[in-house]
């Protein structure tokens, strides 16, 4: 299969082989299993959680892990840590997913436009991207929270803004390479509209780069989101969010360490799993690494 | 790579002796290190209302009169005695003659007149100008006599003049430094003098050598006992605790509630508590907003929350559940009004709502005439507020009320709390007397802030005016009692908790006693000594 002869069929990443290649690597297999487990836990949280995430019982406040009926203990409100973690995971993943989808989508669009209309749009778009890149994400988060008020919406917006420029650069890079290939010229010769050309030929050939970056970024975004929530900009009480839980627990670090440590460990696992999976995906999808 | 590594090693080696020296030099024999949570933006008495500013200002300057540890007795400080005219409108202060500023210049009545006039001058833009009372004129009768004339009597005046806003400062320094007074330098008559300030890190003060006019009756020593005082900012509570226990810090009042009991058991830490401490947490309701405008809802909220459990879970025994609007130890407290605050009774709360026509909807939240029983509460992000609001939220859900919480960072929070976009808010505040607290929050003239409840009741206003202006103490007491009863009957607040004041001191520190004026523990700190 050669890229230059196929004009109508985009060169999509070869689907059947990816998974097989992915799970050949033990680290990748483990991370894939973990990610699946994490997503399943978040999706089925209401079914899995032993208690109501919002109902408190102050008599159980700060019960250590291993107490009766509380394998991971209770938080400062006497709420079961397992329940809070499951629902917190949900909020954290949702925030990450929304931010990657929103920021990544917009970034990819900008990248395609910059590459496709290289002569007119590349300069302005890339300068805009440079400007966006110069703001630290936490600072953007603080500013957005100051305007809209702290909350999940603000965090998603801040994370999206922080993701746009990165995605735009990556997509522009791979799209520029694809743009120089002959089949784009050929497709153009058939009289395809620009939009169709981008959608049918340019986008699919950049998909692996987008996908790999999105997975890697997902981990970072969750970490960043947790940091923003830790600072009090994110989820508002009583909504559980991993970063916010860690923040709440840090005041009791000497007395009830599990309240802060347990969510931190979960954040660590989630971010690690997504990062390893992202790396493995890149290896599996990159044709140059194919042996 | 090897080069980088070598350079790093070198840098490390260079830094080590410095760090070592720093660790040893941290607490020499004559230097008291006070640990605190945050810095202030300036140290100009009338221009800051922050406790972080006041705690240093009290050490750098003096007020005319001082407040004793009982929080009721006003003692002489810069004024050795004073008289009040029979109509209650003129206060004559007789000043001490031995007082000097840090630069050695003697203090006279002109300095007092200048400082107090600067406090009330609209150009100074002091947010607490009202604390000086309805001033007609402040004048110097002779170099050591000041006349403070009011348009109408103001029974609170002496209490208000003990607050650091009314500190006496040196006119020359103020005029020389302008807006930078209290930022680049300071010149007061206090027991310690401004040395250096590194914002957000530390403020260094040195002993005022001439100082011997400390308030008698409040402190045993009229002069400071320590050569240098370092106010060190340590934002993380766990770090402060560690610093105190390892001897890197000597004193702090910023102790996380959960650590108080542990510190009491720690052998090298001494704890001191002030029983008469007036710093309360409350939730206020905007009485003109849907849902919380219904007195039945406000009453039900007051009944539904298990305050004892909530306060215990938030402050671990270092705050007292506030079953009244004011601390029973404060001047002007009315016990009858305290009895009007509803007791905890969840079934009763449900009945109150049922009778008022609030029916439980399909999602468990009550509804009346198409209006869901939900309200939005604003607060500044603090550990305590975060904790007790969640407890309240869970309790209110049990009776079918939905409370939505929106916490703000302190940088934007105060601005948000001045708007009308919320239905209820939580806050904590220091006060000196009942009249002080109630005039601040419940006078209709103080809408929209600090009367964020929009409480507008002519009867309350009349009672507050009488409590402030009547010459007869009995009339004043009756009037402030009336105001307390009206507010309690209408459940304008949900009183949350009364903080306790604890100060922790290292083993080498003696004479630390928690004072608590305006929430400030060390006040003038005159009796503090270091033993090694």
TrEMBL record, chain A:
TM ranges: 27-49, 93-116, 128-146, 152-171, 206-232, 252-278
Bilayer topology term: Multi-pass membrane protein
Superkingdom of this protein's organism: Bacteria
Compartment list: Cell membrane
An example Gene Ontology CC term for this record: plasma membrane
Chief location of this protein within or outside the cell: membrane
GO BP term, pick one: transmembrane transport
Location of the ABC transmembrane type-1 domain: 89-278
Translocase keyword on record: no
Keyword Transmembrane helix: yes
InterPro entries per record: BP-dependent_transpt_permease, MetI-like, MetI-like_sf, OppC_N
Family according to the record: Belongs to the binding-protein-dependent transport system permease family.
Protein name: ABC transporter permease
Organism: Neoroseomonas marina
UniProt lineage: Bacteria, Pseudomonadati, Pseudomonadota, Alphaproteobacteria, Acetobacterales
Automatic annotation (TrEMBL), chain B:
Biological processes per GO annotation: peptide transport
Domain Solute-binding protein family, first and last residues per copy: 73-443
Signal peptide (UniProt feature, chain positions): 1-25
One Gene Ontology term of the molecular function aspect: peptide transmembrane transporter activity
Family statement: Belongs to the bacterial solute-binding protein 5 family.
Localization per record: Periplasm
UniProt protein name: ABC transporter substrate-binding protein
Keywords: Signal
Species annotation: Neoroseomonas marina
Domain of life: Bacteria
Annotated Gene Ontology cellular component terms: ATP-binding cassette (ABC) transporter complex; outer membrane-bounded periplasmic space
